[in-house]
Design brief:
With about 180 residues, the chain is of the alpha/beta class. It is about 25% helix and about 30% strand. The chain has a six-stranded mixed β-sheet. Helix 1 crosses helix 2. Bound molecules: inosinic acid and magnesium ion.
Length: about 180
């Protein structure tokens, strides 16, 4: 796998350190709120499991699977629901945990859909943010790192379903996806 990686962008140590900081912040802000943390499959799964392990407050978890990419490196703007939540969220404090915010279409769709179910609050926690790519007016409430307009893989993030099991975040060699537009 490492043959396809041009450069490691965020090391395992840096990920761990930042995730601990986010967990501390969420612990403080959600003390006594018993939040429902929603993992957006599949990309957020590594971030999610590390984040909740660092949190010390009572919380609940649920999973939702959506897809916004047919494959490749560009967002289609279309979001497809593959698996819905098991839990009802009415009156709950919700934290959506996502891997990366790019155009913002995916999280805008999710946020609107969840708000339609009358939760008490909905906040967004994403590991990575590419603000220069944003096409909708939406910001993450909690974010790990801001990154440049570069396609990254690893730590849950994929290119055509590959590289999710890399323990750190890296930049793919352009030769791996060249030919795509
Ligand atoms: P958005 O709808 O354009 O904000 O796209 C969000 C989704 O696109 C994320 O959940 C990822 O699955 C995927 N994505 C965006 N940028 C990258 C990247 O650099 N690497 C891997 N997946 C990405
Ligand atoms: Mg994703």
């Amino acid at each position: 796998m490492y043959d396809d990686i041009e450069q490691i962008w965020i090391s395992k140590d840096d990920l761990n350190k930042r995730i601990k900081e986010l967990a501390t912040q969420l612990d403080e802000e959600y003390k006594d709120k018993n939040p429902l943390m929603i993992c957006i499959l599949k990309g957020a799964v590594l971030f999610f499991t590390d984040l909740i392990r660092e949190m010390e407050i009572p919380l609940a978890i649920d999973f939702m699977s959506i897809s916004s990419y047919g494959g490749g490196t560009r967002s289609s703007g279309e979001v497809k629901m593959i698996k819905d939540l098991d839990t009802t969220i009415e009156g709950r404090d919700i934290i959506i945990v996502e891997d990366i915010m790019d155009s913002g279409y995916t999280l805008q769709y999710l946020r609107r859909m969840l708000l339609g179910r009358n939760p008490k609050s909905v906040k967004i926690c994403c590991l990575l943010d590419k603000p220069s790519r944003r096409e909708v007016d939406l910001q993450a409430d909690y974010k790990g790192f801001e990154i440049e307009n570069q396609f990254v893989v690893g730590y849950g993030l994929d290119y055509n379903q590959k590289y999710r099991n890399l323990p750190e975040i890296g930049i793919l060699k352009p030769s791996v996806y060249c030919g795509e537009e």
